[in-house]
């Protein structure tokens, strides 16, 4: 039996989705789903104060990255004790988890030369599915079983797409960071489209990017959805309240006037490129076309601001 270390939450969720959660011996400090992971060793910790505001966190991260340092620490001694056969990490974002180059260096210096590294780097939904298959292949799982699991996710997405296709698309802005403002990219615009919306800023498969409030004002979307990376609903709500107090112009936006500003759990759903992106699409669908879709994610996955 292989011993697995997962250094990013999406990797933990993918391994669990494939039915091999019991093989996980080490995880990142952010791995909190599925719920029964308490006894698994935490191998990472942040070098920043994650309890600060989005502006404070942004400043801290910039200072670290400007000095070519990692945002996270790895407990190498604990990792060595675990002697994993497989380490699953990511090469998508320097801010999301331990950098791929650092993982490579740690594995080559401190672990068995046969230790396998599986790196996840998705930018689109199809690439997320490819990553799930890559993990399945890396764990030598039955290929047909893995394909069936992936197809079950694709089927749920297709059902949403078929229903939303007949609805009039709504203009949607997805905000991935609050201070400064960042528009969500990668798989998010594609998910908005599947749910019956048109993402006014994001480009499918392209990185998230900074925007100015004036750009938001000019596009004047029908719906604004806040989904900051690493933030739950409560923390996002507090920051959005502060944001609107600082800038009264938000109240002139169509989405504000029509009470179409929404807050979702970006941490648990949208910013984890794994199986629960399907639930994320369901949340989008409930928000964008509430008369058509009811998946019961209200309050647990999203709220109306």
Structural account:
With 305 residues, this protein is an alpha/beta fold. The chain folds into two domains: 4-147, Rossmann fold (3-Layer(aba) Sandwich), CATH 3.40.50; 165-304, 3-Layer(aba) Sandwich (Rossmann fold), CATH 3.40.50.1980. Helix content is 41%, strand content 17%. It contains twelve helices and 14 strands. The strands form three sheets. Strands 8, 9, 10, 11, 12, 13 and 14 form a seven-stranded mixed beta sheet that branches. β6, α4 and β7 form a beta-alpha-beta unit. α5 (125-138) packs antiparallel against α6 (143-164) and α6 (143-164) packs parallel to α12.
**Count of distinct strands:** 14
SSE order: EHEEEHEHEHEHHEEHEEHEHHEHHE
What's the main sheet like? Answer: 7 strands, mixed
Report the CATH C-level class of the largest domain.
Alpha Beta
Structural class: alpha/beta
Q: Which key terms come to mind for this protein?
A:
305 residues; alpha/beta; Rossmann fold; 2 domains; seven-stranded mixed sheet; five-stranded parallel sheet; 14 strands; 41% helix
Topology:
Layout: E1 4-6, H1 9-17, E2 24-27, E3 41-42, E4 44-46, H2 54-66, E5 72-74, H3 76-82, E6 86-90, H4 100-110, E7 116-120, H5 125-138, H6 143-164, E8 170-177, E9 182-183, H7 188-194, E10 197-199, E11 209-210, H8 213-219, E12 223-226, H9 233-246, H10 254-257, E13 261-264, H11 266-270, H12 277-288, E14 302-304
Parallel strand pairs: 1-2, 1-6, 2-3, 6-7, 8-10, 8-12, 12-13
Antiparallel strand pairs: 4-5, 8-9, 9-11, 13-14
């Amino acid at each position: 039996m292989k011993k697995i270390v997962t250094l990013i939450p999406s990797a933990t969720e993918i391994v669990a989705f494939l039915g091999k959660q019991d093989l996980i011996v080490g995880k990142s400090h952010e791995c909190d789903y599925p719920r029964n992971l308490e006894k698994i060793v935490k191998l990472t910790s942040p070098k920043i104060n994650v309890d600060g505001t989005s502006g404070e966190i942004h400043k801290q991260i910039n200072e670290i990255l400007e000095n070519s340092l990692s945002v996270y620490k790895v407990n190498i001694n604990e990792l060595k004790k675990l002697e994993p056969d497989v380490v699953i990490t990511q090469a998508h974002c320097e801010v999301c988890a331990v950098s791929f180059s650092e993982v490579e260096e740690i594995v080559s210096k401190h672990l068995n030369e046969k230790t396998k590294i599986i790196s996840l780097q998705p930018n689109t939904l199809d690439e997320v599915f490819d990553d799930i298959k890559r993990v399945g292949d890396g764990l030598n799982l039955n290929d047909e079983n893995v394909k069936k699991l992936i197809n079950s996710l694709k089927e749920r997405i297709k059902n949403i797409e078929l229903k939303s296709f007949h609805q009039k698309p709504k203009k949607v802005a997805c905000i991935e960071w609050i201070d400064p403002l960042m528009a969500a990219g990668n798989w998010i615009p594609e998910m908005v489209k599947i749910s019956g919306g048109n993402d006014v800023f994001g480009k499918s498969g392209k990185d998230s990017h900074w925007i100015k409030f004036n750009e938001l004002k000019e596009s004047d979307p029908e719906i604004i959805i806040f989904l900051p990376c690493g933030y739950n609903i409560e923390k996002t709500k507090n920051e959005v309240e502060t944001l609107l107090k600082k800038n009264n112009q938000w109240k002139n936006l169509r989405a504000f006037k029509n009470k179409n500003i929404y807050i979702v759990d970006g941490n648990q759903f949208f910013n984890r490129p794994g199986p629960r992106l399907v639930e994320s699409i369901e949340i989008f669908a409930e928000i964008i076309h509430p008369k058509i879709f009811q998946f019961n994610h209200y309050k647990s996955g999203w709220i109306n601001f």
